[in-house]
Amino acid sequence: MDSSLVGILVGFALVFYAIFSGGDLRSFLDFDSILITVGGTIGATIASYPWSTLKNISKVLKALRTPTVLEPRAIIELLVGYAEKARREGLLALEDDVDEMAEPFLKKGVQLIVDGTDPELVRSILETELSFIEDRHNANAGVFDTMAALAPAFGMLGTLIGLIQMLRNLDDPSTIGSGMAVALVTTFYGSLIANLLCTPIASKLRSNSSAEILLKEVMIEGILSIQAGENPRIVEEKLKAFLATSREAANRTQAGEVSTVEGND
After folding, report:
1. Residues 237-260: pLDDT tens digits?
2. Average pLDDT, the chain
3. Nearest 5 degrees, angle CA 71-CA 137-CA 244?
4. Rounded to two decimals, what is the model's pTM?
5. CA distance 150 to 191
6. 3-class secondary structure for 223-262?
7. What's the CA dihedral at 26, 44, 192, 196 to 10 degrees?
8. Where are the alpha helices (DSSP H) in 49-118?
């Protein structure tokens, strides 16, 4: 089971445990509050993004549960195998392997070098496609970032609506307590949606995207090394070093971001 799903289930379980241990679940259920928080968040999100982005959300969530990113070691072994074959039989020998490649990005790159495309043009084409992939991933994660920002706002809006309705009935003091509870439930829904669903999903999407982008960068370096006719052992060491350097740079970047945030606090 994916760690994201485990984390979300554990979070909900602990929240519901706290609710049950301190009172009645029915106190936290209000249909109108759900309509305001969930409906408002979804409506505003739809208004914020084009349909071309929104229509892929179901596929994105499915991929989140079953990520298809290959292991770096498997990619390097595959590229080294292609390098050995190309060195023995020539680049044209890789044409037989193109149709069997499951990874579209790798398939396109190998097809380009088999067709005799200039190395600089190969790099340009693949890096341009990589940039489009990264933009698409950022847009998908951005949808959930937007929902995480909107949900608490609509929760507060629902609370204000509930308070206004409650203040109209001040002539009946017996309804003030229950009215205040219902008013606050929408804030609870907004916070729950933002912090236990949308923010974790956006973070996981970005994590998966970073891993996929890194692997595709390894593919580009491997494809160009194969085209240059480099020794397979050199190709392997080069890709391992590239992978390690890229990960170290990413870790330094993340550490810098954390330090910046802590400094701002």
Report:
1. 988 888 777 766 655 655 555 444
2. 83
3. 35
4. 0.78
5. 10
6. HHHHHCCCCHHHHHHHHHHHHHHHHHHHHHHHHHHHHHHH
7. 140
8. 51-54, 57-65, 72-89, 95-98, 104-114
